[in-house]
Every structure is written in C-alpha cells, then in structure tokens.
Design a protein that fits this description.
- By secondary structure, the protein is mainly α.
- 54% of the residues lie in helices and 4% in strands.
- It is built from four helices and two strands, in the order H-H-E-E-H-H.
- The protein has a two-stranded antiparallel ribbon.
C-alpha cells in the first residue's frame, strides 16, 4: 500500500518537472523568435537609409517603414524573409508552383493585396495581405521603381 503511494508521488513529481521543462522551452523559443525578428527588423531598418529625391517615392519609403515591409524585404539586395526590393521591378521570379513571372505593377499590387497567392520560390508564405488607399499603392510602387533604377 505504501509503495503504490510513493510511486504515485514520484510520477506526479516527474510530470511537474516535465511541465516546467516544457514551459521553459516554450518561453525560450518565444523570446528567441521575438528577439530574432527584432534583429532582422533593425538590420533592415538600417539598410532603409536610401536617399530618394522623388516626393512620391519618399512617401513609399515611409509607408514601407510604417507598414513593416522592411522587416522582411531589404532594399540593399541582402537576404531577408521576403525578396529584396532592390532591382525588383522587371526581374523574372520563379514562383513556388514552378511558374515564372515578371515583377511588374500588376504583380506588385497583387502580392500586397493577396500576399500568398503567388509566392516567390524558396520564400515562406508568411506575408499578411494589405489593403491600402490607391495613393499608398502608387507611392510604394514609385519607391520600388526607384530601387530598380
């Protein structure tokens, strides 16, 4: 009788220890994900210092910062979570379904509105869809075109 009771307590202690281990690992993963995301955002924000003389393209640069585009899309050609915007317009991209597409105004808008409809190969489907005012789309497009000159 006593041995069963002692066995039950040791099983309970093991379960408590396992729960604390699981919670600790989960907490650590959350901290690492947040920290890593902030590091990527900061690195991309540093790269965002591109001098733009066009007022509309400057507004596009501001929108890309405000909406968080630069958290995933770099402007200097370096790797990011999403494709770099440097030299993007007119570039031929292979999509995750194996088809190819030329990055033009139509694809750019569609990729913002319906982010996961046509995803560039080797990039994750993590971008949220955005609905913006027409002026905001035009400004982002002007910024992307400026980075492609």
């Amino acid at each position: 009788m006593f041995s069963n009771w002692a066995w039950d307590i040791s099983i309970l202690e093991i379960k408590k220890s396992r729960l604390w281990l699981d919670l600790s690992v989960a907490f650590l993963l959350v901290v690492l994900l947040i920290g890593g995301g902030m590091l990527i955002y900061q690195l991309n924000f540093d790269a965002m210092e591109v001098e733009i003389n066009d007022v509309i393209a400057q507004r596009g640069q501001e929108i890309s910062t405000e909406e968080g585009c630069i958290a995933c899309h770099t402007v200097d050609g370096s790797l990011g979570v999403g494709p770099s915007w440097l030299g993007m317009m007119g570039r031929v991209e292979t999509l995750d379904d194996g088809t190819s597409i030329v990055v033009d105004e139509e694809y750019f808008r569609e990729s913002i509105r319906y982010a996961n409809r046509k995803v560039v190969e080797d990039y994750p489907k993590v971008m949220p869809s955005y609905w913006m005012e027409e002026e905001e789309y035009a400004a982002l497009l002007a910024f992307a075109r400026r980075l492609s000159q």
